[in-house]
What does this fold into?
Amino acid sequence: TASERSMVHKYILDSVVYWAEEYHIDGFRFDLVGLIDTETVNDIVAAVHRSHPNVIFYGEGWTLETKVTKERVELATQPNSTKTPDFAYFCDTIRDGLKGSVFHADRKGYISGAEGLEQLMERCFLGQAPDWCSTPSQCINYASCHDNYTMMDRLALSAPESSRKEQIRMNNLAAAIYFTAMGIPLMQAGEEMLRTKVDEKGAFVENSFKSSDFVNSIKWDTLDEPEYRKVYEYYRGLIAFRKAHGALRLATPEEVTASVTPVRGLEKNVIAMKIKGGINGETAKEIFLIFNPNKTATTVALPDGTWQVCVNEELAGTGVLETVTCGWVNVAPVSAKILIRS
It folds into this structure.
């Protein structure tokens, strides 16, 4: 669609406003928003926010070889994100960093054994995806979505040497990272239940837009099994922890720079972040997050004080799992550990 033409612009704008007004839709996700010009996107957001300020807007800002019909028209792509300040974009940087490129299903990512990604994952955690994003409020963080393999199917393909238990820990580590990273977390429906998309012949389905209900249905009955229920509860705990801590929801790069500090001197592949309280209603004095993708445990030094563990390799939530006063903490293989200092 040539959104830069006045009547196409008006048609798109009027449609979105109508859906927000008449159907009370509280969020709009634009498929390939990189095909729509920045002026149209900004006008849509402004028009809806005049009466519905909490409606969210995000989309796929991939850069495509798309010609426009008017000169000096800029499209709503990731590199142009600063020109659409109230519109967010899918961060494929953290997605591919976590599990490997979606274009190469056999390649590993940070959670599954790829090395040398510490700096990239730090930048993504800070809401500063290299090459395009510096503002957390525009960064949609995710590990899996409706396109491409589900998280567990991807891990089965890229880390076939790993056990089922190890792959579940990889899945949970990815969730712990994107649910606590600066930005906006997004998850595929069913990821919290180890969703898989396998056809009648037992083959993994990469894109199931034309597949049957046998492939696409969410298998709710799996929640009766302890393995699935445990992951479901882990996701619930991560969501509760994020909601309880305002310092995980900083909106500007200035706030992030002032409050979040990467920890140095760690083992290879391990990353850790220290987040100060006193911002955005944060109730803790400090938050300390550690992510260990290695298949061996690691020990990380803690700042002085009494620390309370809220997330480990088995459980997540706002309750205290253990109290640490010895100045260091042990982090299990392929897991996250998140602590707070009250």
